[in-house]
Each structure stands twice: as C-alpha cells, then as structure tokens.
C-alpha cells in the first residue's frame, strides 16, 4: 500500500468521525470500530493527556488512572512534540466540562 493509499484511508476515517452528530453516535461508532481493549486504551490515553495538561505529575497520574509509565511518557511526548491534536481538543473539552467535575 502506498503512502497516498494510507492517507486516503486515514482521511476517510477522519471524515466518518467528523460526520458523527453527537456523543451517542460517536460512542456507538467507536464501539463498532474498536475492540473493548482498544477503546479503553484510547480513553486512558486521553485521560492521561488531560491530567498532564493540568500539570499533574507522573506518579499521581499512574495512581489515578492505572496507566503505565510508558503510556504516560508516550502521551507526554505527544503533548510536547506531537501533531498538536491534543492541543486542539483539550481546551474545547475542558471548556465544555468546566464545573462538571469531569
């Protein structure tokens, strides 16, 4: 498979995600698309990203989430040197859930 083919597949998946109308549709789509383990891993990585963004230290994140130090480190690298995906999403999610204890 060429790089262009992989890009087209990636774009198609991204377009599918962007077409989802609400949280329930998204949850249903991800449930169909991912295994339980894959979904739990993504949920955990996102929680770790939120906690790192809030300034929480590794040991506290490990204790709170059960994430391995390798996972925490990987997420931190993405926050520091990644494609800015977390930085695009985190403020939006935090704004929506401000005051909801999430």
Describe the overall structure.
With 102 residues, the protein is mainly alpha-helical. The chain is 77% helix and 0% strand. The chain contains 6 helices and no strands. α3 crosses α5. The longest helix has 18 residues. The radius of gyration is 15 Å and the shape is globular. The protein starts with a helix and ends in a 5-residue tail after the last helix.
Key traits:
mainly alpha, single chain, 102 residues, 77% helix
Oligomeric assembly = single chain
Looking at the structure, what is the overall shape?
Answer: globular
Strand runs, count: 0
Order of helices and strands: HHHHHH
Estimate the helix proportion, in percent. over 70%
Strand content: under 5%
Number of helices: 6
Largest sheet: none
List low-pLDDT spans: none
* N-end to C-end Cα span: 41 Å
**Measured on Cα atoms, how large is the radius of gyration?**
15 Å
Short characterization:
With 102 residues, this protein is mainly alpha-helical. 77% of the residues lie in helices and 0% in strands. Helix 3 (36-53) packs across helix 5.
